[in-house]
Amino acid sequence: MASTLTVKDMNQEIVRDCMKGLGPVSKSVLSRKTGLSFPTVSKTVDLLCETGEVEEAGTEKSGGGRCAALYRLNPVFSLYLLLTVENDTIHWSLKDLEGNSLKEETSEENFPILTAMEAKVESIRTQFPCLKGIVIGAAGMVSGGKVVLTAGGSELTGVNLQEHFSRKFGIPVRAVNDMNAVAAGRWSLAGRSDGCCVCIYLGKNGMGAGIVINGKVWQGASDFAGELGFLPDMLGKLRPADKNFAPSRMLEIYCKIIQIYASVLNPERVVLYRNPFLDGALEELYRECEKVIPEHSMPLLEISDSYETDYEQGLLVIANMLKERDI
């Protein structure tokens, strides 16, 4: 249940959010940026220093008068666990507030995946008591933190990962679809504010897409957007383990999907994460797509090697939005 915020809590949250990404900053600058009075900011910063969440970071350069003290968020006060799961493979990375990895690992599990995930979190929390939140990326359709659909009948289907882990460990948790996280990360790293981008990835569980429109991930009315396996004539053809999967037709399938997104969303860019079917195929993709898509509406196609980087960045973006009251 969400707790009631006091004025002191609200002021701390305002100051905390303002300090994210700023680096060393003075109390007077924080006052101007937050709109809070200087005495309120000063008291709030002092309280955050007492708890260790904020630390002193030197002084401003001298301008002839007394140098103001500078403060920054203590990067290791709050740690966040980014955990991804696909079939029987778990990858996790422990991040500080500045996005630095303290520890990470990838493992393939031979016993129930939910049990394995719980054991990982328990172990990490024991080692790092400052763990303040968890973000889980899962292959499959995820709605409201619940794994609704997965290819191949994963045991996680029907499990609300968000509620399960939040209740078990008493900290904020977010569970999201893998491609939505990837798209969020791609957009964050690009540093753009508007436009439309579609990210497409072929993995063990099949092919999925993430969509960003004007800085926001578009998940659809029921979080179904990007479930490419349900497109007409695609059932059973987008997952390497299925009998109808035909490697020789993959470029044709990529072209069809690009054409669909070009006509429905008209994105500026379509990012295709690299796999063997795409090696040396960029020119052919353009040539085939341009037979259908008008030249002035043809999106920029990019074959990218940064799937893991974009995925992790997206999870980190979500982690930075977690709040204690989200439990």
Automatic annotation (TrEMBL):
Gene3D superfamilies: 3.30.420.40, Winged helix-like DNA-binding domain superfamily/Winged helix DNA-binding domain. PANTHER family: BIFUNCTIONAL UDP-N-ACETYLGLUCOSAMINE 2-EPIMERASE_N-ACETYLMANNOSAMINE KINASE, ROK (REPRESSOR, ORF, KINASE) FAMILY. It holds the Pfam family ROK. It comes from the Bacteria. InterPro entries: ATPase_NBD (IPR043129), ROK (IPR000600), WH-like_DNA-bd_sf (IPR036388), WH_DNA-bd_sf (IPR036390). Belongs to the ROK (NagC/XylR) family. Keywords: Carbohydrate metabolism, Xylose metabolism. This is ROK family protein. Transcriptional repressor of xylose-utilizing enzymes. GO terms for biological process: D-xylose metabolic process.
